[in-house]
Every structure is written in C-alpha cells, then in structure tokens.
Amino acid sequence: MLLGRFADPDATLGTDPRADPRMVAAFARFGLDGRLPPVGLAVDAPIAERYAFALAGEQGMGAVFEALASSTPAPPGVSTTTSVVAGPDGNGVPVFISRPTHASGPLPAIVHLHGGGMAIGSATDSCYIRLREHLAATGLVVVGVEFRNSGGKLGPHPFPAGLNDCAAVARWVSAHRDELGVSHIVVSGESGGGNLTLTLAHKATREGWIGELSGFYAQCPYISNRWLEECEDLPSLRENDGYFVSCEQLALLGSLYDPDGTHVDDATCWAAAATDEELKGLPPHVISVNELDPLRDEGLQYYRRLLRAGVPAVGRVVAGTCHGGDLLFGSVMPDVFSASLNDVSGFAKSLSSTRSGL
C-alpha cells in the first residue's frame, strides 16, 4: 500500500488521511498544513547564507512554538531553579532544574537536550520549558541544558561544542546527585536533541564514563545525515518530505553542525554512523518516532540495530503525528502529549541505579 507522497506526490499534512485532524487544524493557523516552499539554498552555499537561513528559521519556528506553548498551562506543584555548569572550553553552560515541589527521596533525573538540529533553538524557549515542567510533574528531576548551537542566536559553534556541553552537564548531574536528590540519570531529547542523546552514549563509552548513565530515550532522532540521498532503506525521507519539516531544511542545518564533512563517519557526531561493534554493551534505549516524519525510518533502523547488537531497546511509533508532533500540542492533543511524557517517565522509573553504581 502506497502512503504519503508515494501515493500522491502533492500530499501534505492537511491531505494525508493518516494525520491527526487536531494537529492539522492547529498547523492550519500558521499555514503549515500545506506544502513547504523550497528554500533554494544548497548545502555548499556560502556559510554566511546558511547561517542566515538558520537564524531566520529559528525566529520563524520560535514564533510558532511560542504560540503553541502559550496555550499549554504550566502544571501545578513544580519548581525550577537555575545554575551554570563549567563548560569544556572555559564557557558556562546554563541549566534549568525542574522538580516536583513536595517530592521526597531521590528521584530519577532526565538530562534534557532540546531539538533544533543542533543548530537552532534554546532551552529557554517556552515549548521546552513547558515540556520539562510537565516531565517533572510525573515525579522526575529534569535538567534542561543550554548547549552551544552550530547556528542561530547561540551559534556558531560546530561539532563537538554542543555535545561537549551536554557531556559536561551529564557528568555534573552525576557528581552532584546527592545535592540534586537524584537516584540515577537518563538522557533524553528530541530531533537534534535526539542525535545528541544517542551520540552522548558513544562519547561516554569512548571516554569510560558510560556507567554514570542508566539509559537513553531519543524522540524523532535526527541521525542519518543522508537527507538528500536516494535511500531505499529509509523510505520515510520521501514519503513524508515537506510534512512540517523537509529534507532540504534538515540537510542545511546538518551542514552547519559539521561544515567541512570531516565527521560523517563519527558516531559521536551522527549516531547512525555507529558501527555494530560500537552499539554493543550500551545501556537500555528507547527510540520513539512519529508516523508522518521524514526521519521516522532512520530512528526505527537505529532501534533495530540496537536490538541486533544485544542492547535492551524499545521502539515506539506515535501514529498520526508529524516530526515531534506528540510534544508540540499539549493543549490541542493532551492525550498524545501526556502519553509521550509518561512513556519517558516510565522508562526512567523502570531503571535502577545498579548499572551506574549510584
């Protein structure tokens, strides 16, 4: 059975019968239910033009995310504090720590890495603030990381700057677990944050501190670095191209993270580059993808590779949703939003501190 743009080359989120109608109606307010116009910019265009594209995209999508987040109320009984962690390059990495106000005893911690293709977005964006607060309300300590981006207002800092910031925060949480009231640590993020989540596992393994982390939960991970290729093994790249995100946009953001392409085979840059040997022995993983996402199949492919490598892993497909759609519509699709956050929380609570020795 042909689906998406295989069935109709002109298909959009608004016309695809698989799409959740609540999501379509919410996107229609911003004109995002139809076809995205071409960017018209090549991945080898002058880097200044690509930086300008990223900044404009950050501003435009930021306005959409702000509007969506404004209709999602903050949960009761959650407090947030801030701190600054020493970064690897003499920089400070701001962190935002949310927790249930009246929780007792050590809680699992989520080190949360926001989306944006490692190039745009901020942990201070309202959509990520709300996401962390609602995660914390399920009984977790949630640490949002303001890592350096490869573009946008927090850039330009290409690989490995952002990943190194995320690693510094993960190790800081581990070192301060008693002070923070943390029992064990799970790393979680969506889209570019999903790539950072998975590549952080490889970095920690290489450097010998993987035992400090109990698990990894990646949502709609952006990991293949193959978005402009003809990929028979990743049909969703064509099937869902232009549904909220396009392969052209994905490739342009990726070109800022690794501008000269010297890290295409490095599993700490792009998780999908990991060899089978590099996957062996990793802690438990969950890979959650969206049915109507160009990135769906690269996430599922990674999940299957984890299983073949003997890693405890769960794969999850959120039907009817576009890239990250289960996390964007807390007020429009509260059941879907809650289900995804509760799955992250349930995974974190299912693990113990045994592996990490905490």
From TrEMBL:
Q: Which SUPFAM superfamilies does the record cross-reference, listed alphabetically?
A: alpha/beta-Hydrolases
User: Does the record bear S-adenosyl-L-methionine in its keywords?
Assistant: no
InterPro entries, alphabetized:
AB_hydrolase_3, AB_hydrolase_fold, GDXG_lipolytic_enzyme
Q: Which domain of life is it from?
A: Bacteria
One annotated GO molecular function: hydrolase activity
Q: Which residues form the Alpha/beta hydrolase fold-3 domain?
A: 110-324
Q: Does the keyword Hydrolase apply?
A: yes
Record-linked Gene3D superfamilies: alpha/beta hydrolase (3.40.50.1820)
Q: Which Pfam families does UniProt cross-reference here?
A: Abhydrolase_3
* Keywords assigned by UniProt, alphabetized: Hydrolase
How is this protein named in the record? Acetyl esterase/lipase
Originating organism: Mycolicibacterium iranicum
Q: What is the lineage of its organism?
A: Bacteria, Bacillati, Actinomycetota, Actinomycetes, Mycobacteriales
